[in-house]
Every structure is written in C-alpha cells, then in structure tokens.
Amino acid sequence: MSGIKNENVKKRERNRMEKKLSARKILVIVFVAGALLCGIGTGISLVEYSSFEYLGKKNIGGNDVETKMIMENLYRGTDGNGKVYIHSYYGEDSKVTVETSKDVPKDQIQFVVEYNPNNVKDIVIDREELEGNDPYYEGYYDSYYGDVEYSVENETVAASEDATTVTDSSAAQNGQQAGAQTDIQPQTYITYMINPVMAQESGLEVFFTYKDEILQNIKEKRFYEYEYPSIQSVKVLVHPSNKDVVSLY
User: Fold this and answer.
1) Taxonomically, which superkingdom (predicted)?
2) Secondary structure, 3-state, the chain
3) Among 23, 195, 73, 61, which residue's Cα sits nearest to residue 123?
C-alpha cells in the first residue's frame, strides 16, 4: 500500500510541476513574440541578440497592489466536524499565512488577499468537500485537476482477493480484523481554494496588452526576465477557537 501511495504522491507532484510550467510558458511566449516582431520590424539579426544587456527581473503589469477582503462561512461538512485546508496555487510562492482574530466570528473565515490589479480582475474563493483519507495524499489533486483515479481502491480489492489463498484459520482472523477496520468512519475534509480571475488568458494576450513597453525594451537591446505577478500574499483569519481546525495545504 505504501508503494501505491508513494506513486500517487509522485504523480500529483508531476501535475503540480506541469501547472507551474504552463504558467511560465506565458512569459516565454511574451518574450519570443516580442523578439520576433521587433526583429522583423527593425531588421535586428539573430547575431545582434547576443549583444543584449540583461537587466534582471521585471514585473509585467507593474508593481501595483490592491487588497480584497472576503468573508465566508466556515463550512466543515454535513457533520460539522470536518478538517479545513487552505490552498492557493497562484500564491504558493508568496506569503500565505493563517492567523487568529477574535474579530472573526466562530462560524466565519476571512481571506485578505493582495494582488496585482493589472493582471487580476477579481479574486474568488472556491470550496471543495472530500470524504476519505487525508487529501494531503489522497484525492485532492486528482479531483482538482480532473484526473480522478481509482487505482488504490482497485489494487486494494485485488490484494484482498489474493489473500484468499491463506489457510481457513488465518482467513477467519484476517476477516475479523477487516471487519473491525470497516467500522472506522471516513473523515470529511474541506478545501478552500483562493483563485485569481486573470485579466489576460494567454501569453499572446499578455504580449499585446504590454507590447509597446516590451518592444521598446527589445529595440533598445535591453533584456528582462519577465515575471507575471498575480496573487502577492494571502492572510487567512479565523476565530481562536478554530486554530486547530484550519491549516495550510
């Protein structure tokens, strides 16, 4: 079982890395499109690109920051005892914290999100409810990315069928243990996902939004490592009584 779980964890990490790379593809498209258009329009040869001066990182969309406060009901499942996780994919490289405040009602959860208004139109909070094993290892990424698998469950069933080859006495003992395990009720897990509504949906759209600045930099043989800031920071506030209920994913 541990081998199966490790394989699933590796698969989710690959999914996560693919998401990171797809976000960075936007920036690659931005520079390549600018370089090609500028080269064609001004007669810059490929050899001349070697003389470009690297000037470090530069934010596409500037450094403007706005703050949005969102108050949500602290939903803990139908039984009211579910564990709550906070997940922010786009903000995973920035500061995401969970803090307590007596100003937040016991049945509420507050999100304070800082974001770049030039690249993000709005911030929305999505919620997902899962039942079963801890989503740190089971279910969350498969469900969120639309790649639900049942390999763990199926292989567990197959392993149970293979176990019928043991002696009758051992089978009876294992059956009693399995029966005891089925009495354990699956736990409910709630995941709040902090998602930006992006102002531009593709690399080309980003380029044409900021093409004047990008082309001017290329004409002047200045090369920047472009970054595309979206969510800058997330602060999650809960009542002190819920300190052990809510945690970061």
Assistant:
1) Bacteria
2) CHHHHHHHHHHHHHHHHHHHHHHHHHHHHHHHHHHHHHHHHHCCCCHHHHHCEEEEEEECCCCCCEEEEEEEECCCCCCCCCEEEEECCCCCCCEEEEEECCCCCCCEEEEEEEECCCCEEEEEEEEEEEEECCCCCCCHHHHHCCCCCCHHHHHHHHHHHHHHHCCHHHHHHHHHHHHHHHCCCCEEEEEEEEEEEECCCCHHHHHHHCHHHHHHHHHCCEEEEEECCCEEEEEEEECHHHCCCEEEC
3) 195
Tell me how far CA of residue 88 lies from CA of 67, 180, 209, 249, in angstroms: 16, 38, 26, 8
Task: Encode pLDDT of 90-113 as tens digits.
Answer: 554 558 899 999 999 999 999 999
Distance CA(59)–CA(224), nearest Å, equals: 9
Measured torsion, CA atoms of residues 236, 238, 243, 249, in degrees rounded to the nearest 10: -30
pLDDT at 207: 77
Q: What is the pTM of this model?
A: 0.64
